[in-house]
Amino acid sequence: MNATQVLVLNSGSSSLKYQLLDMPAGRRLATGLVERIGEDGPGRLVHTPAGTNGDGDGDSGRRERELPLPDHAAALRAAGEELAADGLGLDSPELAAIGHRVVHGGRTFTEPTVVDERVLAEIERLVPLAPLHNPANLAGIRTALAINPDVPQVAVFDTAFHTTIPDHAACYAIDAEVAAEHRIRRYGFHGTSHAFVSRRTAELLGRRPEEVNVITLHLGNGASAAAVAGGRCVDTSMGLTPLQGLVMGTRSGDIDPAVVFHLSRVAGMSVAEIDELLNSRSGLRGLCGDNDMREVVRRMDAGDTRARLAFDVYIHRLRSYLGAYVAVLGRVDAVAFTAGVGENATRVRTAAVAGLDALGLAIDERLNTAAVRGPRLISPEYARVAVAVVPTDEELEIATQAFALVNA
Ligand code: ADP
């Protein structure tokens, strides 16, 4: 019998998220989160076996413990113990592949890739482009390789879906030699999500991905938009780093680059301070003090003017990108909202398309506010462009890509 399980690992600098899925159906066998890796004090592990409610409420099978977690190897071993307790495991003959989320694949990795020494070296070479993420991703891969060298390890890159973006959309208008030497261009992120959601949106329309043009709006804590023409990405709002584009929870998105020089010259801030300002103290949090859209909307409704401004700036930027991508695509068949804000914030969806009837965009408020989960259309029958809510599932997409690759 062929092995059908895929373990998906998403390693952050101090955390490790894992999911074990049975493929090709994508049934979840277990999910878990290991936190506070390499920090002072004990680490924490939460493991949720299948059949329990992964959302956390009242799930009897959920197990939680504190334990010493000096590094990623300890974290993965602890996850392995939890899986083993459920009769699953890192060394199970059922395991077909381990799929790793890797943030930066540069221009090298356009597809999911089976990891070998050459691939590891290339991910390492890309560290300057993603100094926080790629080292953590590498630690996860190296650890998994050490624990089970026999099962194929597949790297799935956040940037891969965007490697089809043409040069005219990916190049910044700066000195070409400097750009080439330092590999400066638009790479884009959240690619796994944009790929998954654009394909699901086509399914929702009963069409093949090659037949439809979709604008996907991934609005989570980080946020990005993508223009997808016939299943291929042609533009996205994030750039060299995930700082560019939409207003996010704590990141500024687009600003005049001269703001950086100004802060340096006039405010005397260091590069590290400006980096921290734009990544962690900007976006919704910078504008009003809260980075959670639920809180922003609640305060706005209570008459708070800072929260109102934060919401309005967020929406203005979102609409600007929406309009830009209508022009980039020429013909748009659907706009899809996804991730925490996109899937849940009815007010954001309403405001994003309000008054855009001339572009063929409209929302049916009854559908928009209906308590429904799962992929759904929220535009009225008559609208020329479908507006959809499509929950993203990056782990399932990574498992799907990894499973397809090892069975190819
Ligand atoms: P991440 O980018 O960390 O994966 P998510 O996609 O889970 O984030 O999105 C998290 C964000 O989604 C939260 O910070 C919050 O702003 C927003 N969010 C979650 N639920 C709701 C809701 N019911 N209404 C409005 N916003 C929500």
TrEMBL record:
HAMAP family: Acetate_kinase
Annotated binding of Mg(2+), by residue: 10, 394
Gene3D superfamilies named among the record's database cross-references: 3.30.420.40
The protein's name: Acetate kinase
InterPro entries, sorted: Ac/propionate_kinase, Aliphatic_acid_kin_short-chain, Aliphatic_acid_kinase_CS, ATPase_NBD
Species, as recorded: Streptomyces mimosae
Functional note: Catalyzes the formation of acetyl phosphate from acetate and ATP. Can also catalyze the reverse reaction.
Localisation per UniProt entry: Cytoplasm
Binding site for substrate: 101
